[in-house]
Known about the structure:
Blueprint: E1 2-7, H1 14-27, E2 32-36, H2 50-56, E3 61-65, E4 70-74, H3 81-89, E5 94-98, E6 107-110, E7 125-127, E8 140-141, H4 145-157
Parallel strand pairs: 1-5, 1-6, 2-5, 6-7, 7-8
Antiparallel strand pairs: 3-4
Amino acid sequence: MKAIAFIGHHNSGKTTLLRQLIPALRARGLRVGSAKHVAPDVELDAPGKDSYVLRRAGAERVLILSDAGGALVWDHDELRTETLVKKHMNDLDLVILEGFKESTFPKIEVYASGEPLAGHIPVLAVVTDHRPRLPDDIPVLPTDPEDVADFLEHHLLED
């Protein structure tokens, strides 16, 4: 399993790009998973639902299942992103993370405006349709998901 974090400022287009990139990667035969960073005050389970009540009652994990899908919800203290991704997504070819700029995973910045993160945070490339001021050695990719998929295949998935 390989993983890559797509980072960028708020409203830089990360979700829009990933929504197009994931089908492009799947069309190449890859099994792709995703993880999104959210603020700690975002409730992952719906208050008032039985699963929420059971978790608040002390259940360490609650598995929510239906005929259409499922989710595992738990509370944790300081488990590392890397550990959780490897534990729960190790059977996939590629895990795409949205956010997690502090993780040790390789990163690609999605840039729209403001001060680029590249140069302050190590990145493999910057995806943008603009011309940001970047260190000379950082590749700039267009926002075309096929170009980004090509880059990932050649720089992350080959080996």
